[in-house]
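Every protein is a chain of amino acids, and every chain bends into a shape of its own. The fold becomes a row of whole numbers, each drawn from a learned catalogue of backbone shapes. The protein below has been through that process, and both of its lines are reproduced in full.
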Amino acid sequence: MSDSEWALVRDLLPVPGWLAGRGGRPEGYCHRQMIDAVRYLVDNGIKWRAMPSDFPPWPRVYSFFVRWRDAGLVTELHERLREAVRTGEGRGPEPSAAVVDSQSVKADATVAHASRGFDAGKRINGRKRHLLTDTLGLLLDVMVTPASTTDRDAARTLLPAAKKNFRRLARVWADGGYTGHLIDWTSQHLGVVLDIVRRSDDASGFEVLPRRWVVERSFAWLLRSRRLVRDYERRTDTSEAVIRWSMIALMNRRLAARHDQPVRTAAS
């Protein structure tokens, strides 16, 4: 992280238990070193054991990653950064509309058979990432499943969790994979309008679809992190944590870039 990025994220970090008086051993490395190491791994797609010597030893970095994953601290930091980005864009901290879609990716040999599947439509053997984003493309929630899981089945878990966390959520845009009983189910049980954006039958070639392009761009953002080009993680919650770390880096850079912009005056 640059100094400006660290200055912005430092005040948003969750407070460790030993600093909050909840016990525990003080950490031997500062958070900036640990976060830089995790971001380096996610961005460059290296193995844990290939961590450069400039960073703390890889077992310590991995322990930090696991502790933040299991304690929900990476989710907490991600949510604080998202609220800061939305506020900077003139939006409310909590969204009222979202976009949902899925992406199937190949799984490495390290992924167990029980947590992978075959997506017959995309002809991919691996896992599927189900993303729910706001209208800015920022991640609201993510769920990783075997690639054989249908979009409708995943949405019955993803959407209720999102509605619980975002009370103002009233409309969700989706593609044709979410049609059927799910539309009535979300309206009756969640009070959310599921709006299906369909591709025109007369269209040929590439076509930008309203609202749906937002989540497609989010998938493109994630694939800029080499660790996410393929699923290498043994556990699905680790895959979800890596996705959140990728979005944390993106939002941190965006906030720092806005903060470093010179202030325009009337004379200029």
Summary: The beta strands are 97-106, 117-119, 124-133, 139-146, 171-174, 193-196. The two ends are 31 Å apart (CA to CA).
